[in-house]
Structures are given as C-alpha cells and as structure tokens.
Amino acid sequence: MVTMGRTLTSVLLLFSSIVSLAYAKTHYHDFVVQETKVTRLCKTQTVMTVNGQLPGPTLEVNNGDSLVINVVNRAKDNVTIHWHGVRQITTAWADGPEFITQCPIRPGGSYTYRFTISGQEGTLWWHAHSSWVRATVYGALVIRPKQGDSYPFQKPKRESVMVLGEWWNANPLDVIREAMRTGGGPNISDAFTINGQPGDLYNCSRKDTVIVPVDSGETNLMRVINAGLNQQLFFTIANHKFIVVGADASYVKPFTTSVLMLGPGQTTDVLIKADQPPARYYIAGRAYASAQGVPFDNTTTTAILEYKTAPCPAKGVSSKPVMPSLPAYNDTATATSFSTSFRSPKKVKVPTDIDVNMFITAGLGILQCPPTAPASTCQAPNRTRFTASMNNVSFVLPSNFTILQAHHLGVPGVFTTDFPANPPVTFDYTGNVPQSLWQPIRGTKVYKLKYGETVQIVLQGTNISTAENHPIHLHGYDFYIIAEGFGNFNPATDTSKFNLVDPPLRNTASLPVSGWAVIRFVADNPGSWIMHCHLDVHIGWGLAMVLLVEDGPEVSQKLQKAPADLPVC
Ligand code: C2O
Prior knowledge:
The chain is mostly beta strands. The protein contains five helices and 32 strands. The protein folds into three domains: 22-144, Immunoglobulin-like (Sandwich), CATH 2.60.40.420; 158-339, Cupredoxins -  blue copper proteins (Immunoglobulin-like, Sandwich); 356-557, Cupredoxins -  blue copper proteins (Immunoglobulin-like, Sandwich). Its EC number is 1.10.3.2.
C-alpha cells in the first residue's frame, strides 16, 4: 500500500510538472542597441537606446517562462545587458556584467541571452552593464505568477510600471569619462524621470508628463523600479497610501506606508486604492541624499494619478494636481523605517549553520596622486583621486578576458583568489577614520565558495571620505537581510537582532549610512557573481568584489557550457 501510495504521488508529481512545463512559454525578443536622438528639458542628446525607446521595452513573462533575447549592437560604444535580479541558475553566461561573465558586445556585434525565470514573481528589470550605458539602456521585467496561479492578494483591476531614471543634459558616457579623467566626482544629473519623462515641474516637459489613469474605487498594482544611476529616491503619491506587497521579485508581508525609498537596483510592488475624491494627484520622486556635503540633484520628478471622472477644470482655472509632501533630502529616519518594515510573507528557511562568515567593509576612499601626475587628473580634494573599496580592495575589472571564462577554462593571471573575508585592519569604521587608512589597494580579487556552502556576510559601511547609504547588489542570488543597524556591527550584541524567522528576500540591500546590514544565502548557483554598490559612480571607483561559486557534483548543479556566440574580448 505504502509503495502504491508513493507511486501514485510520484505519478501525480510528474503529471503536475508536465502540466506546468506545458504552460511555460519561451519569449523571443530583438534588442537593437542604437544611437538615438532624444529631447528632454528643451535639449536634444544622442544617447544609446534599445529599439529607439526610452525606457526600453517592458518584458512581460510568467514565472517559469524562458527568454531568448538577441542583442545587436548598432551603437558606437560597447554594451552588455544584465537581467537584474534574475537568478540565472547554471546560466551565468547570460548574466551580463562586462568582463565578469562576458566580454562586451562590440559595435557591430551581437549576442543572444538565453535564460529561464524560476521561482521569482514580481518585478525585476534589465539594464546595460558596461560603463554608464545603463543611463539610457534599461527597462522593466514584469514576472506574473505561473500560468494558472494567482497573486497572493486580490487581483488588481489595473497594473502600471513606474521606472525611475536619471537624465543628463549631456551624453552620460562623456560625463563618466570626464570624471574618470579628472579623478573628481562626476556631474550630477539634470533631472529624474518617470518612464523616461521628467514631468511638468521641469522646463519643456509638461506635455509629456506621464499620466496614470484610475477609476474611483479600483486598485492599481504599481511596480516601481529605481533605474537611476547614482541616486536613492523617495517616491510618494499625494493623498494616497501604498500597500507594499513585493520587492525584488519576492512577495512580502503587506504593510502600509505613504512613502517608498528605493536605491538604484531595487524594485517595490505596491497596491494603490483609488479611494480619494476624483481629481489629479501628483506622483513624485526625489533624492534621498545621505552623504553630507556631496552635491546631488535636488529636482523633483512627477507623474499624475488621474481619476477618470475628475472634473475638467473650468476655463482659466489652473488644474494643478495635488502635490504630496516629500521627506527632506536627508531624512534617514524615514528611509530606515521603510527599509526595516520588510518581512517575508511567512516563516522562511534561513540558513543557520554558517559555513562561511564574511565581514566586508564598503565605502569610499582616496588615492594620493604621485608628484608627477598633472593636477588636471587629481581633482578630488588635496591633489587626490576618488576611489572606493570593499575590505580595502578597490576592484579592477579585467580587460582582456572574463572572470567566468578564466575560471571555466583554467586560464591563469586574470584574477587572484585572495579577496579577504575580513578587513585587513580593524578600526572604528564609522568613527573618525585616520587618513592613513583611506587608501585602498587595487586588484581583481575574488572569493571562492564551494557549491552549497551557507554564507553570512556582514556588510559594514565606513565613514572614509564620506559616509553614505550604499545599495549593495549581489548577482545570481537572492539573500535574506536578517538585520541592519547604525554604527559598527557588534557581534556580541547585534546578533540578538537577527530575524531568522521571516526576513525579507532581496537582491539589493540598502546599507544604512554609517551602518551595517547582515545577509545570508546558500551558494547554490555556480558562476562568477559580482557584488557591488549600485551607484554607478561607486562601481567605477571599485566598490565591488566577486564571489566565485564552484560547480556542485550533480549535473543540475554545474554551470552549463558556454554559448557558441559568447562575445570574445
Ligand atoms: Cu543592476 Cu550589477 O547590476
């Protein structure tokens, strides 16, 4: 009987997996990266886009589906595309960061990304992962429940995608090239955007302001993505509340708030109920700027939530939408109360027997210029150049080979495996750090993990040069954020704050300004996975490291073989 029962169960299991396989679809897309003339703020720039669109196409799939995206580079600069937050289980070749998992797609070249979405639902996005190309090469990736499954909340009447971006009155690639040449900070952006549009608080932007239509009483599932380059953003809607239901393509225990804070890389899914008098309400985003004394873009981007039955304004009367109040630019208390509100919907299996314990400092630094260097290349304060590091290593991308290929083919000399699991010197990370500790070393160092190891990483922000909030993103994984706090992480007392019951699952952690965050995950995806600050200016300065996860014993635990069209360097 027992055997028969088992057989029946396995037949049923087999049947159900065939059914879900039968439903899984493969989506084919062509992404043509091209130089496109785009006019914003009364000025026209030539920037890179996908298919001439800004933002690029929204991809809509169901959990379990596969994507085949042929990227053709018809632009003048290199490009790669990263599918931000997609786990890429055994398909690291399709992850996208240049010189980590692939060489750039050169002008005239192409590459087809093939991967499957498995076990992720909600909102992710895609973006270029080469220099600052992602300033204009980005778009949403909407993942609905598996065919036949439903949302874990009442089905919304409407859905909308709000991709927040940043716009320069310049070619963003020129902005970063200039910063890299001078060693100083790059120019700040001239506008923030919602779905590519700054909104009517900026010059020449009124007629293109994004409108989100609603009917009284209906609920809208709004997918908010911060695709901005260098700025954490507050996001709010006048007179309406958000019910947060997901983040980074994982559901969360619903909670209500009137303001969101997203670091670049993060996504938040919210339900908005149209329960206010029919009118027009501003949806607004502006900076959460946690670093003191650092210039930032203090403008406000807007869209309009418009009730379809809103009375038309009488002639001569202005129909200014209702403006929400936004938190102050430096309102860390609001940012913190938001980021600490996240929980998984129910009890989850957080790894508890930790095999690998890392403590990684993350922050800025400076490099002293040699006496022979021209002053024009040492434009950070006191003849220095800005830099950044993790555990005092300022990450340098390889330039003629990728880390993944070098690992796979056993090519020596591309990277070293001595990324330190702890900072080389212990100091008061969030205190007054002696200047002698401000200079990192440069290197292409990775940290090796065996397949299946359980990992805990304490991310510790530093006050070196400037303390600030850093959105730390890990490729190839979702991780639990089990605690965060301010000051130096104290293992004797802070472990009592660990949430091992229902911590949120994320791919990008908001590392508090002058603070710490603790993440945990199981290294169950082979490949070379970059972990970096998602402020692009910091990546360029070296705020990154790579986890190199080895193959497991089973076939399903090994990196698949490299695609034949993988670009070579
Ligand atoms: Cu969204 Cu390494 O990136």
